[in-house]
Write a structure and sequence with these properties.
The chain is built from one helix and 16 strands. By secondary structure, it is mainly beta. A 16-stranded antiparallel beta barrel has the order 1-2-3-4-5-6-7-8-9-10-11-12-13-14-15-16. Strand 2 and strand 3 form a beta hairpin.
Length: 297
């Protein structure tokens, strides 16, 4: 099913952005999107992403290609669900620092084993590999722009159970390693081992989620500013409170840094789903950012 989304964003620092995103689906295992945005200050930005499911989800009965047939003959193997993703973008500007960095993937390729059951009872695992050439342009001084090849390997294990009063308890831990290359020379490496404890409770209309993030080990750092913006360096708490009104939702989300004793994000969002179109409104208080999107199916 194909769909289109019109976007209108406003940022306190730099003003308005207008954009359009078109999503396509060729088949159950081949789909993607193309994005084009016009910013009143930085000009055009955009990108294209396409995903290929190299194997079918594990609930499929029969193998559909040679990769799946291979795992049918591997002893003690549950067929992994593999997903390849191709990203090409030019000048996409990250919201956290719109007046400083423009980031382009030229391109980036991702191979992922999405969440599936591991050999440990009740524990799921997810594995991600990324390789790409990334250009981060410094808009205030182009001489400080960075062009690097980044390789990334991430492994995450998760466990979740529902207990008394139907409260969901979740545990996650994982490793995220990133290496940055200037041609054949390694310039930076960044290694994280982190964990998360989460609690969730849903009522008829109300839902609430609480999460605590902690880094067990941290070394090195990123060559880029953009991909360290969302990383949890210190201990952090995230909590969400919302209303579930059938296909429509209203929720608020807070992210609080325990070391800095300050909020990192405060978001208020409203999603309206109608017969053939959807409306999304989001206000991000800390970043002074307003997002408006309308999609047609």
């Amino acid at each position: 099913q194909n769909s289109g989304t019109a976007l209108v964003d406003w940022y306190e620092k730099t003003g308005w952005l207008f954009g359009y995103r078109y999503d396509w689906r060729y088949s159950r295992t081949s789909f993607g999107n193309v994005r084009l945005k016009l910013h009143t200050r930085e000009g055009l930005e955009g990108g294209i992403t396409h995903r290929f499911l190299l194997t079918s989800p594990s609930n499929e009965e029969k193998p559909t290609n040679i990769i799946e047939q291979f795992f049918e003959f591997v002893p003690f193997s549950s067929k992994p669900f593999l997903e390849a993703q191709f990203d090409l973008s030019s000048g996409e500007i990250y919201d956290e620092d719109r007046d400083q960095q423009r980031v382009s993937f030229l391109p980036q390729i991702t191979l992922q084993v999405p969440k599936q059951r591991s050999l440990i009872p009740d524990v799921d695992h997810e594995i991600t590999f990324r390789l790409g050439n990334i250009l981060e342009e410094n808009l205030t001084d182009w001489r400080n722009s960075i062009n690097r090849i980044r390789t990334q390997v991430a492994v995450q294990y998760s466990w979740q159970k529902n207990f008394f009063w139907d409260i969901g308890l979740g545990l996650k831990t994982g490793y995220d390693g990133r290496w940055y290359w200037d041609r054949t020379t390694l310039t930076n490496s960044w290694n994280l081992i982190n964990g998360e404890l989460s609690l969730a409770k849903r009522f008829d209309l109300l839902f609430a989620d609480w999460s605590y993030y902690h880094n067990f080990a941290y070394s090195g750092g990123s060559a880029f500013a953009y991909d360290s913006k969302e990383a949890v360096i210190d201990d952090e708490i995230k909590y969400t409170l919302g209303l579930d009104l059938g296909p429509n939702t209203v929720y608020a989300q807070w992210r609080y840094n325990l070391m800095q004793k300050a909020y990192r994000d405060i978001d208020l969002s409203f999603k309206l789903n109608l017969h053939c179109w959807n409306l999304v409104l989001t206000w991000r208080e800390i970043r002074k950012e307003f997002n408006f999107g309308v999609s047609l199916n």
